[in-house]
Design a protein that fits this description.
The structure is a homotetramer of 252-residue chains. Chain A is 35% helix and 28% strand. By secondary structure, chain A is an alpha/beta fold. Chain A has a single domain (3-235), classed as PAC-like subunit (Rossmann fold). In chain A, the strands form two sheets. In chain A, strands 1-3-6-7-2-8-12-9-10 form a nine-stranded mixed beta sheet, with helices on both faces. In chain A, strands 4-5 form a two-stranded antiparallel sheet. In chain A, helix 3 (141-149) links the parallel strand 9 (134-138) and strand 10 (153-154). The longest helix of chain A is centred in the last third of the chain and has 23 residues, at 213-235. The two termini of chain A are 28 Å apart. Chains in contact: A-B, A-D, B-C, C-D. At the A-B interface, strand 4 and strand 5 of A face helix 2, strand 9, helix 3, strand 11 and helix 4 of B. Strand 4 of chain B pairs antiparallel with strand 11 (157-161) of chain C.
């Protein structure tokens, strides 16, 4: 099999933009992508199967689900750009797999006439953040400036690992404008607050209204969990988390 | 070599069904498959060799045995379906190997006209179970209903790793009806009781009489071992097994 | 590169036999092969290079040595069989590499008209052995009988990992008579005594005189080391080695 | 992708020599290569991209940087040899990747008419060294003599792992004269002093003036760090570093 890209729907799109939210730290990117699929009407247009994914299947209500990534078209109403969303069950598990699957997707995107690719990712801080900032990187200086103008902090130096990094790296090689938006997150738990921050930035950049209400419930649930953790922390006063050091930032 | 599928016997089968029992947790699936080969007359019809298997050979009474998987035809008497059984020395050791070997086998099954594939696997509970339940998953909603009607508990959400999962996932992709039956087992030791429970379910689903007497001896042996472990546990009262937590279920 | 087999000398051989001694536990096989190259006049006839070997080079007196396996012809005088010896710097480091390199070598051996392949390996006991026994396995029942007749103990059940196993497994698949001779060894240190025991068995099987004097020095050196270890052991009386249990035998 | 070698500038060179400084222990080789690019005018003539590199991108002032190795031409003024320098973000992460990328580079070098290849590497001592010696190895006896004549200590026996080793090994196989120069270094930290020592040797061998002033600042910074470590050591007097033993030398 290697990598199989199955076209589910053949359609032409107007100045299409691809937004990628893969599972990773804090599920920041995947939560954001899933939110877009929830609030807008969406239909899958392409499915990626690969033996680079983990060797397993999932069940949902007893029905076998094979590992896959999918590209969806979401109906955002009259906008300048048609919006496509990439998300999936898993990233490839080997290093080469990350390159090969990303390359296949970027080729598909290029054939589809995609003008811009965004990856949504996590910027790990090692501590809980009340108001997560959004960091950004882009393929060219003038695109970095666009991010800056929209209030995104520029990621001066750092690494983005996995598909969130390789997708924009491959886009650069193939001459497609690409961006990564990384929301600050502790790295300790699922973080819808960080996903919301990313979507707010994306909303400004794409000039696209995104209803963020449904993310609020998830944020409150997460906050309760953090409070519980904080209480536990108070009880063990004087003991420092080994990972609370800002200097050991890991991004993906 | 990669993967070599050697046809040992060329034959036509009537509505053939493939039952797969690979070595895995508790040897639940392999014990069940081996039992079928023991109680029915069987002949190997196909051998799979691959450099994705562990790099080793086994000896049996001094004779070199290369690693392989084999498909057998078992003589079950006059039934609606011819029954084929897949089992072997080992699953592939790399992730891609699991996909590639499974794909080869499902292709072979398709060419043979296989109508249904069953994988027999373990549902790990982390504690010893007196009357193991059988969980199931299938490729389509209507097939899930069949399992339900035969008393199989439906696996609502979970993962099936390795060939037991990939075989039915690949079957789904290639349009073959497929099922996995997973017997509850502790995950600590070889578990013929779980294998028996699976075969009882399989017997109902296929409407096939399976003599289960020979499994009883093995169950008694296993029970004795459990009793010894339990005694040791009583002696070390107050000490809990670190893995006895029900929440950490792992399935394969 | 993958695997490159470079013919260094093209020659016809009379009933040639291939003896393989790869580096492994106790260097039992490699020491034996090197001894053959030392006592007989030898010339390399084939070199195997591969990117499955460890990614490194060695230096010898400042000169770069690339990783390789080599086949040598040794001049044993007038015998029934021409004798070839395979040894090298390293076994492949990945599982597939073990299969692929072994396959290449067995194909080469087949083209050369090799009638019999022997691999020389270690049978790990977990404790120091005064008079190491030699275990054996072969591709067919009648060949097992030959080993028995020459005083080799038959390896009833067990695994042989790495090239020592795969070479005879591949030979079996390709229809070449093959044997493995495994000398008992502790698994803790280099063991020329075990190599000597293997060569004594090989000498009987091939009806080939092998001068074993030069191995004696090495055995004495090793014995001194064992005595030192034993003294240390006496001083720490009452403390048992964790691996001294005979039941946990590992063979390669 | 596998490995993509992109020619950035097509030019003919006069008796060209390739100097390779890849990231590794103490950054000894990379620091040396970077120094050459800093003090001489340089232009990239070839870029190597590969999915054997780590699956990540870096950002620099917000701009996406894909992983790569590059070959540069440096303007050294009127010398007997045109000088090319290879360096990059990373070595391949798999064993085969090391072989395949190195082979691609040596092929490119051969087509370019490269007469000599040097790799610059670290010789790990396990303790801080005041005046690091430079060890060397070469593809042939007569080339080893050249090193000796220039004051390089000959590496009698040892291993060189990764591209620093494979590049000269592959060069040997393809008939190109090749050398490795290894500067003594502790293995604990970045070591510009070792890089300087290597460049002094290289300067003599190539009869090329190399301004080493800029490395002095880096050495002073590193010395301060070592002094701090030494102070800490004095305070914990009597406690020995576990790795201070000269016998456990590891080279790469």
């Amino acid at each position: 099999m290697d990598i199989k890209l199955k076209i589910l729907k053949k359609r032409k799109f107007k100045n299409p933009v691809l937004i990628c939210g893969m599972p990773g730290s804090g599920y920041v990117g995947k939560l954001a992508a899933d939110h877009l699929l929830n609030i807008f009407e969406s239909s899958a247009i392409c499915e990626i199967q690969s033996d680079y994914f983990p060797p397993q299947i999932a069940t949902n209500k007893g029905i076998v689900q094979t590992m896959s990534n999918k590209v969806y078209h979401i109906e955002t109403g009259k906008t300048k750009n048609d919006i496509l969303v990439l998300t999936g069950d898993s990233q490839p598990i080997t290093e080469r797999g990350n390159y090969l699957v990303s390359e296949k997707i970027v080729e598909y995107a290029k054939n589809l006439g995609i003008k811009k690719i965004f990856t949504l990712a996590a910027y790990i801080t090692g501590e809980f953040v009340n108001e997560p900032k959004v960091y950004g990187t882009a393929t060219e200086k003038k695109h970095v400036r666009i991010l800056k103008n929209k209030g995104v902090k520029i990621m001066n130096q750092g690494m983005i690992t996995g598909m969130n990094g390789i997708l924009i790296g491959t886009a650069k090689i193939k001459g497609i404008e690409a961006y990564s938006l990384l929301g600050e997150t502790s790295g300790y738990m699922i973080d819808p607050k960080s996903s919301k921050a990313i979507l707010e930035s994306l909303s400004k950049i794409l000039n696209l209204k995104i209803n963020l209400k449904e993310l609020s419930n998830k944020i409150e649930e997460a906050n309760e969990l953090i409070n519980q953790v904080d209480e536990m922390k108070t009880k063990t006063e004087g003991i420092e988390y080994s990972n609370r050091d800002n200097s050991s930032q890991y991004i993906n």
